Amino acid sequence: MEEAKKGKSAGPDDLLAELFLNLGKKAKLTLLHFYNVIWNASVSSDWRKFVIIPILKPLKPTDHPSSYRPISLTNGYCKLMERIVTNQLNYFFEAYKKISDLGTKEIQLNKQDHFSYLGATFDNRLSWRGHAEGNTKKGEKKLGLLKRLAGVTWGSSDVLSTFCKSYARPVFDYGGELLATASKICGDIIDRIQNKAFRLIPSAFSSTPIAALEI
Q1: Which residues, at least 6 apart from 210, have a Cβ–Cβ distance to it below 8 Å?
Q2: Residue 172 in contact with residue 196, Cβ under 8 Å?
Q3: 30-51 pLDDT, tens per residue?
Q4: Backbone phi, then psi, for 54, in 5-degree steps?
Q5: DSSP one-letter string for the chain
Q6: Is 168 exposed, middle or buried (0-12, 13-18, 19+ CB in 10 A)?
Q7: Are 12 and 48 in contact (CB under 8 A)?
Q8: pLDDT tens sequence across 59-95
Q9: 189, 133 Cβ separation under 8 angstroms
Q10: Minimal CA–CA distance to 142: which of 154, 130, 153, 150?
Q11: Residue 98 CB: number of other CB atoms within 10 A?
Q12: pTM of the entire predicted model
């Protein structure tokens, strides 16, 4: 609970981190009992709801949806429980380096800073930076083919635009729901690879402002 960040906006339940930080001992025990009850039952469907706030990117036109970066605000009760579960799992894996495999042998658990599942990269802080960098690395390979097409005589901007939307952009945007809760740095990483594609399609200079290409 002490790890809760102050000064952050509330989610759909309108509960700020300051409320939990100022709870008394009895209130904290009651809250812990509440978490234990729902752990053995089910999580409220309201906890799966969140508020999305669109934040305008610097120097972007206000009348285009892609000019905004979504920020997700989740329920205070949900965020606190996620932090409790994460800390307990970290403690378990730190304290018990080995676990029994069906009682027959021991398996050494190696701590990893990140892992991939279904194309999404998770890190131990859930910052999603590794996922953004992975999308960028895959996107660079896609842009390599786009550059070759841009050099042939039939590679008009319409053809390149269609090819980029169907071949390269799905790689840039993969797991976009995860990046909705990421920091601005992760958004900037994705923006840079997308901006390369935007400049490549009309054969624009690398110094051409993106705002001019969106007109």
Answers
A1: 59, 60, 195, 198, 199
A2: no
A3: 988 888 888 877 777 777 777 8
A4: -80, 125
A5: -TTPPTTPPP-TT---HHHHHT--HHHHHHHHHHHHHHHTS---GGGG-EEEEEEEPTT--TT-GGGEEEEEEE-HHHHHHHHHHHHHHHHHHHH--EEEETTTEEEEPPP-SEEEETTEEEETT---HHHHHHHHHHHHHHHHHHHHHHTSTT--HHHHHHHIIIIIHHHHTTTHHHHTTS-HHHHHHHHHHHHHHHHHTTT--TTS-HHHH--
A6: buried
A7: no
A8: 888 888 888 888 888 888 888 888 888 888 777 777 7
A9: yes
A10: 150
A11: 10
A12: 0.40
Q: Are 178 and 120 in contact (CB under 8 A)?
A: yes
Separation in Å, CA 171 to CA 22, 175, 195, 199: 44, 9, 14, 17
Look at residue 102 in the predicted model and tell me its pLDDT. 46
Q: Which amino acid is at 59?
A: L
Q: How far apart are CA 77 and CA 118, in angstroms?
A: 28
Residue type present at position 190:
I
Q: How many CB atoms lie within 10 A of CB 167?
A: 14
